[in-house]
Write a structure and sequence with these properties.
The complex is a heterodimer of chains A (about 350) and B (about 220). Chain A is built from 14 helices and no strands. Chain A has about 350 residues and is an all-alpha fold. The termini of chain A are far apart. Chain B has a domain at about 80-95 and about 100-225. Chain B contains 10 helices and no strands. Chain B has helices at about 10-15, 30-35, 45-65, 70-75, 80-90, 100-125, 130-140, 145-160, 165-190, 200-220. In chain B, helix 6 runs antiparallel to helix 10 (about 200-220). Chain B is globular. Classes of the chains: A mainly alpha (about 350), B mainly alpha (about 220). Chains A and B meet through helix 2, helix 3, helix 5 and helix 6 of A and helix 1, helix 6 and helix 10 of B. Chain A: Keywords: Cell membrane, Cytoplasm, Differentiation, Glycoprotein, Golgi apparatus, Membrane, Transmembrane, Transmembrane helix. Chain A: InterPro entries: tRNA_Mod/Golgi_Maint. Chain A: It is found in: Cell membrane; Cytoplasm; Golgi apparatus, cis-Golgi network membrane.
Chain lengths: ~350, ~220
């Protein structure tokens, strides 16, 4: 009967089911259920039922208060434990920590050795599996690309340029690594995914160097300097990667497929970066080479910039459908710099010719 | 078990089942300490002034990083970085066409915050001792010299109609100074938290971060109005 025990003795577990039956009340009723006290009993029953209605909520409230509090604490503890576990599993920064465990000297050495292919292909060449170097190189490449874009003239859509640079660089690094790892998996190459990532990332040093030098020492009107650098730096880093893959793959066809893909992607990406975001001031430079009197104005003062390249055109003036239409719109612009340039073109006697060709289209 | 009649009312007597009480833990510090930390009842002006003073103190520390104070690290806050970031983004906003305005603010804002997060993650992965928000706080506050350089640049751009090479040189030197100051200040605060032989690895991302911001400032020379 005494489902309800004195909490100070015995267990603290309260059996709610028996309480809800009002078991404790039965005794009162049974004691009082004799003849003349029947009415009293009923009254008492009603009274007790009334009091039990009042007492039960009090009791229930009190018990659920204490019990509820305990339960709430339990739920909170379990929930936070589970959340911590999930967080530790998925967002744990410690997973990446081993890949950042490098010394500055090692990073420098690896950067320099990107251009030093190792000719040993009979035994698998050692490949670093580190992510610090490639990550910094990719960020540097993004910065160089921005420098490239900025110095290629009047840029209207800076937001698009930054996002494009970010997307292009990280997309190339991760996309090419994924593709090469997939091909390596098919071709039975003994290389890990993180090593492919690291290798591709380090090879981007060539891109940084070539693009930076190409923009900083831009030689007008000829791409020969760029092609030379492309062959030297791009070639060396490509050969380095190719030899690593050769040393880790067996079978002629597999070697050919893997190394061919790697070399093609690497070199073509460099070409793409140069020509897509290239300094198109060279068009204007060619135009203005006809000038007799030198006028000192910086490149940024040259307002109307035209290009036949679709990417650059869209970048400069998204409303432009074709280059000459863009020039026409720009020619009507009221900006000071464009007025200056138009004036210079008029002095050169070129503007009339340009207008004629514009209107004829 | 004794067949005692248990009255329901006994229950309420035996077990204190009040729904009110206090939430202090027995053995906790007494009430007076709690009142000191409770800032809910103070006037809003006091709260704002206190926060402003903290931000101002941190600005002074950034401008003078050699003073050696570590309050920038201990009590981090993100109000200062937010104010600086919004100011820099607003000033760098292009003001020619309406459609170029929005991306530029968002671009600068995103670059500043994402850049700070990336640099922080990098320093943590290299074994740094600072917490995430401490690093973000320091990096954000150290944008102050660059934002001052940006204000000077804007004044120069607005002051004269034609931009000569001399003015460009002044702007370039100002931004270069701001960049050097920012990088030096950030290194002064964050350098000690890195292992000694890996300081260079932590410096480079900070250098790149402030370099990109400086580049955005110096290349914002086209005032097309």
């Amino acid at each position: 009967m005494a489902a309800f025990q004195n909490p100070s003795e015995g267990s603290a577990v309260i059996d709610m089911s028996t309480l809800e039956d009002g078991a404790g009340l039965d005794d009162d009723i049974s004691i009082a259920s004799s003849g003349e006290e029947f009415v009293d009993v009923r009254k008492r029953e009603r009274a007790t039922s009334d009091t039990s209605d009042e007492g039960d909520p009090n009791l229930a409230k009190g018990l659920t208060g204490a019990l509820g509090q305990t339960m709430a604490e339990q739920v909170w503890k379990t929930g936070s434990q589970q959340a911590k576990k999930a967080f530790n599993l998925y967002a744990n920064i410690d997973i990446l920590r081993p890949y950042f465990d490098v010394e500055p000297r090692k990073v420098m050495k690896r950067l320099l050795h990107t251009f030093v292919p190792s000719r040993v292909i009979s035994i698998p060449q050692k490949v670093a599996s580190e992510l610090y170097g490639p990550l910094m190189i990719v960020f540097t490449l993004i910065a160089v690309l921005l420098y490239n874009m900025k110095s290629s003239g009047h840029t209207v859509r800076e937001g698009t340029l930054m996002g494009t640079a970010f997307f292009v660089c990280f997309g190339y690094w991760w996309g090419t690594s994924a593709l090469l790892y997939f091909i390596a998996y098919i071709c039975n190459t003994h290389i890990a995914a993180i090593q492919v990532l690291s290798l591709t990332g380090y090879a981007l040093v060539a891109h940084c160097v070539v693009l930076f030098l190409g923009t900083a020492f831009h030689s007008v009107g000829s791409h020969s300097m760029f092609y030379l650098m492309w062959a030297v730096f791009g070639g060396l880093s490509t050969i380095k990667m190719v030899l690593v893959y050769l040393s880790r793959t067996s079978g002629q066809t597999q070697r050919l497929v893997l190394t061919g893909t790697c070399a093609a992607l690497h070199l073509l990406f460099l070409l793409y970066l140069h020509f897509a975001y290239h300094n198109i001031v060279e068009d204007l430079d060619q135009t203005l080479q006809l000038r007799v009197a030198p006028v000192s104005f910086s490149r940024h003062d040259l307002g109307p910039v035209r290009s036949t390249h679709p990417v650059i055109r869209r970048v400069i003036d998204p409303r432009a459908v074709d280059p000459m239409a863009g020039a026409q719109e720009v020619g009507k612009s009221k900006t000071r710099m464009e007025r200056d340039t138009n004036q210079q073109l008029v002095e050169l006697g070129l503007k009339d010719g340009l207008d004629k060709s514009v209107h004829s289209m | 078990m004794a067949a005692t009649s248990v009255d329901v009312s006994d229950v309420t007597d035996q077990v204190p089942l009040d729904v009110e009480g206090d939430i202090t833990v027995p053995g906790a510090p007494p009430e007076e300490d709690e009142d000191d930390f409770s800032t809910l009842d103070e006037p809003v002006k006091d709260t704002i002034l206190r926060d402003l003073k903290a931000v101002g103190k941190k600005f002074v520390h950034v401008l003078n990083p050699l003073k050696g104070s570590r309050s920038l690290l201990r009590e981090w806050d993100l109000w200062g970085p937010l104010v600086l970031c919004v100011m820099v983004a607003l000033l760098l906003q292009g003001d020619n066409a309406a459609d170029t305005g929005a991306p530029q603010f968002a671009e600068v804002f995103v670059i500043l915050w994402v850049g700070a997060v990336v640099v922080t993650l990098n320093s943590q992965l290299l074994g740094g001792q600072l917490s995430f928000f401490q690093s973000v706080c320091v990096l954000g506050y150290c944008v102050l010299p660059l934002s001052m350089a940006l204000i000077v640049c804007r004044i120069i751009l607005a002051a004269s109609a034609t931009q000569t090479i001399v003015l460009f040189a002044i702007r370039f030197v100002t931004v270069l100074l701001g960049f050097a100051w920012s990088t030096f200040a950030a290194m002064a605060f964050l350098g000690d938290s890195q292992p000694v032989n890996r300081k260079a690895l932590a410096v480079y991302p900070i250098f790149l971060f402030y370099f990109i911001i400086s580049w955005m400032i110096i290349s914002h020379t086209h005032s097309d109005t």
